[in-house]
Design goal:
Layout: E1 2-3, E2 12-15, E3 18-28, E4 36-43, E5 49-55, E6 59-62, E7 66-76, E8 79-84, E9 90-94, H1 95-98, E10 110-116, E11 119-124, E12 128-136, E13 149-154, E14 159-163, E15 171-175, E16 180-184
Antiparallel strand pairs: 1-6, 2-3, 2-6, 3-4, 4-5, 7-8, 7-10, 8-9, 10-11, 12-13, 12-15, 13-14, 15-16
Length: 186
Amino acid sequence: MKEAQEFRVGNIYKKGDDLFLITKAEYNKGARSASSMKFKIKNLDTGSISEIVTRADDKMDDVILDRKKMQFLYANGDVYTFMDQETYDQIELTADYLGDNIYYLIDEMVIDVLFHGSKPISIELPTVVEMRIAYTEPAVQGNTSGRVMKSAKLETGLEIQVPIFCTDDELIRIDTRTGTYMERVR
């Protein structure tokens, strides 16, 4: 059992017989030490998404999962195929199951797949990924005061804000936790 304030995005907890994946966690400091946690959760059995609010010091059942290194092979429609690095067994997960993580998957990327027993529950991405810019508007001359950003579409379809000096076909680093630009790859 852990206190609610110790849970982060990607953690899984158990309530009754159901497992819930935390997709968003927000700590709120209240008046007179009545702090609370607001969670956006996904039921891993039904796929339903909901929001809950709990006191920060409430106890919740933490679930420890097994990790396997798996390589992302390919996507076929809404089905994503991964291969175990040791046994070469393959598993398939749907886009609904993976959520926004699909925008960070690059062919042959090795990631951690989390299992509860023999059932795949979730994936854990590396903190930083390198991706190529598929398209971005050219810079406008004279628009360089301060930190000027522009929209860029990456090779996986993800759209993020990048500095104005970034160009098409350039390799950049992205923080997968926040979905933000970090730096150019030299």
